[in-house]
Design brief:
5-stranded mixed β-barrel; alpha+beta; 3-stranded antiparallel sheet; globular; 35% strand
Length: 150
């Protein structure tokens, strides 16, 4: 009796990864720390100079994890000034997540743009032990001078 060869079954996980990677839609991100500096964002994304736009985030406050800023939920009237950036690829999203480490969570948020428009976007919120944070302020200019990034 002749045996029929079964068709090769594709690797479903690889197919799923390829589909999600290829079907990436741009995402607006809100940055409140070192990623507000075009030179730092450029070095993280390994890309051309980024187009950053002033933006605000409501309902969060900045705390410090050592010298690093971290945002946590706060009263609805609390405001953080920062920059927005449109992430263009899944690769760039992964590079940002790698840069932020597991101490930060890639989270959904409501970003207010310079013209007052509010849009759903993403930001990195604190994902670690709250006892590791202290009250404080992140000053971008001071950080740039210390890191020699202008």
């Amino acid at each position: 009796m002749e045996r029929h060869q079964l068709p090769e079954i594709p690797d479903m996980q690889a197919s799923s990864d390829a589909i999600s990677h290829n079907s990436f839609c741009t995402e607006l991100y809100f940055f409140y720390g070192s990623l507000q500096a075009p030179a730092r964002l450029m070095s993280v994304l390994l890309s051309d100079p980024p187009l950053l736009r002033p933006a605000k985030l409501f309902g969060y406050k900045i705390m410090l994890w050592g010298p690093y800023p971290a945002i946590v939920e706060a009263e609805p009237d609390k405001v953080i000034n920062g920059m927005s950036y449109e992430v263009q690829s899944a690769d760039h999203r992964q590079l940002l997540e790698f840069y932020e480490t597991n101490n930060y969570k890639n989270d959904t948020c409501l970003i207010q743009l310079e013209d007052g428009t509010k849009t759903v976007g993403r930001t990195f919120t604190w994902n670690g032990d709250m006892s590791m944070l202290k009250e404080g302020v992140f000053h971008l200019k001071e950080w740039q001078m210390k890191e020699n990034i202008l």
